Amino acid sequence: MMTSLNKSRPVYAPLEADPRGTQHWLVTSGATEAARSSAFSALSNVSPLEIWSVDEDMAHAGAGAACALANAVAHHFDGDDELLGALAVALRHAHVGLRVYALGTEPFIWSVQQVAARVGIAPEAVRVVHSGSLHRRVYCIHCRAMNEGVTANLVPCAGCGRRLLVRDHFSRRLAAFMGVQADAEVPGELPEIEHTYL
């Protein structure tokens, strides 16, 4: 579990099934095999269960996946964008009682949260659990560009070119960490680059 003194930084609890749910969807991309196995185990007694995953992830899944898939409807996708697009369509037709469990990288799980929120799914019906890479989505506060796959504390903004300092402040609304101009006070004076988010 990742922790921070910053109160906006998400803290993730282990995935647990919500017994009040009448439908259960596990949506996963980029999670470790151990995390997927743990999720399959946690959701092994819920029904009906649907598993939404990126093909690459399930190709590396172990025996726990085969067991879970035997009792679930499986939806496989070529990538995150395809999965999220199909999820957005399906959630428009979801019934009350649906529980969504998002498992994977932070950009992915918070994108799932955003998709659900856009169609009116209550926040408490979506559980997010981080697993896998620590790379970040960074929002430039200057030009509003999103910078994907950030692994260091400094990143050149894809929108305006400023060198952004990646803050630990996380916006759930934007599903991103905040990036501020690193040398705003003294042009050219930059902190040492650290590859912290691998």
From TrEMBL:
InterPro entries: DmmA-like_C, DmmA-like_N
Entry keywords, A to Z: 2Fe-2S, Flavoprotein, Iron, Iron-sulfur, Metal-binding, Oxidoreductase
Domain Dimethylamine monooxygenase subunit DmmA-like N-terminal as annotated: residue spans: 7-124
Pfam families per UniProt: DmmA-like_C (PF22289), DmmA-like_N (PF22290)
Occurrences of domain Dimethylamine monooxygenase subunit DmmA-like C-terminal (ranges): 137-180
NCBIfam families referenced in this protein's UniProt entry, alphabetically: mono_DmmA_fam
Protein known as: Uncharacterized protein
UniProt lineage: Bacteria, Pseudomonadati, Pseudomonadota, Betaproteobacteria, Burkholderiales
